[in-house]
Amino acid sequence: MSLAVLYSRALSGMDAPLVTVEIHIANGLPSFTIVGLPEMEVRESKDRVRSALQNSHFKIPAQRITVNLAPADLPKESGRFDLPIALGILAATGQIPKEQLDQYEWAGELALTGELRPIRGALAMTYHASQSGRSFVLPEQNAAEAALVKKVTIYAAQSLLQICAHLTKQKLLPVFPNTADNEVATENQHFPDFEDIKGQAHAKRALEIAAAGRHNILMTGPPGTGKSMMAARFPGILPPMTEDEALESAAIQSLSYGRFNIAEWKRRPFRAPHHTASGVALVGGGSHPRPGEISLALHGVLFLDEFPEFDRKVLEVLREPLESGKITISRAARQAEFPADFQLIAASNPCFCGYLGHPSGKCQCTPDQIARYRGRISGPLLDRIDIQIEVPAVPQEELMRQNVTGEKSSVIRTRVTESHQRQLARQGKTNNRLGVKEIDQYCILDTISENLLKQAISRLNLSARAYHRILKVARTIADLSGIEKISNQHIAEAIQYRRLDKQ
Fold first, then answer.
1. Of the given ranges (57-66, 257-266, 470-479), which has the lowest mean pLDDT?
2. Domains of the chain (ranges plus CATH)?
3. In angstroms, rounded to a whole number, what is the distance separating the alpha carbons of residues 147 and 104?
4. CA neighbor of 227 nearest in space, from 307, 329, 108, 315
5. Chain centroid to CA 161
6. For the segment 438-478, what is each residue's pLDDT rounded down to a tens digit?
7. How far does the chain reach from its first CA to its final CA, in angstroms?
8. How far apart are CA 67 and CA 146, in angstroms?
9. How many C-beta neighbours within 10 Å does residue 271 have?
10. What's this model's pTM, rounded to 2 decimal places?
11. CA angle at 162 for the pair 159 and 163, rounded to the nearest 5°
């Protein structure tokens, strides 16, 4: 029977569902038909495959060729199915053996010469292929990122002829070595160091707490106080990425950019979109849903400078992912879900002119103007930001002091990592992800702490969400101190980080 069956992968959001490629050669007038909900790039595959086979000196049968991409209800896009289709035709016509085809999964776009071109989302495909037990064959340009997945055997090929030589055992393809063992840049040394920042002890303490518990933070202060400077150094104090976190982050970048830069392995992403960015740019979208900035910042930092200058509708789309850690993009024809477990660092001026509270007294804004400027950030969004601090201007004397360095990022990072480990050992997650029941279990207060928190709720008119976030921040402060029970000092400090609730 002139039938061959191979396996490949499609892309649907972060998922890479299995696609069975069936090729049948039948008698009849010469034709080449692809079925199974193929999009334009896939329908054009028949021309690329035909030319690649001819230029590689293979025979194309003058018969009826039918290609089925199953399941039929899953949209198929891009040129990654060129390689399995070409191999299926060769196997169905007896030009290569078909016995070993089911031991591999195949993906690659063919040039007209038979050379293999790189594909998008290779890491996402191999990540899911690792659970099937089959090896993966793909273009050489994608092999380095695909080999970051340890549980799958990767074969890299330059051309269709190389793969055919492997299948006929004339010249076997070497197994591509695993690249995750290189442990590139695990110490985050490429980020600037906190020791460059003069003064701002209160802000640096707040950022340390935010890093330890993965809390979102908003810094408000006049221009030139070091907000952007501290944000750029923040990823350098975050704990090291786990293997799973690094793979997820790399997969989402491979999906978006087409390829993943191996030099970025285990580096926390730092995304800083301009305030003119649209809602689609921030959360993702398009007719073929692609990840946005919040997904590209997965397990890293999303820095939004000039926070109130973002369009209000754009900011409001952050509310759901900040709470859930994922984003679902729905379109008429399809739906895609992307992870969005990022840490938000926002910076804002206190008013229109930016100099409210500055020692120079330059601010001329009226109370109404100040209120209108702060009103650009909605209450529900502000409620979801755990830590809100004011960053004052650095005194002239402290700024001009020579040879004075602050605490190194590596020292801060050690404390943050120790606190992070305590959280994982106790509850299996960071404090920012604690649910209501878990807060009741791990954030137990004594009588003094309870009374203090009751007074804060009454005076500041705190919401239930703000109440829970104060408890989570207090839990992180206690963890940084190595203390199991939350005390009134921890509660008092956590309340101080709700500055905007007092205004």
1. 257-266
2. 3-180 (3.30.230.10), 194-407 (3.40.50.300), 434-503 (no CATH)
3. 15
4. 307
5. 37
6. 999 999 998 999 999 999 888 888 888 889 999 999 999 99
7. 78
8. 27
9. 18
10. 0.87
11. 95
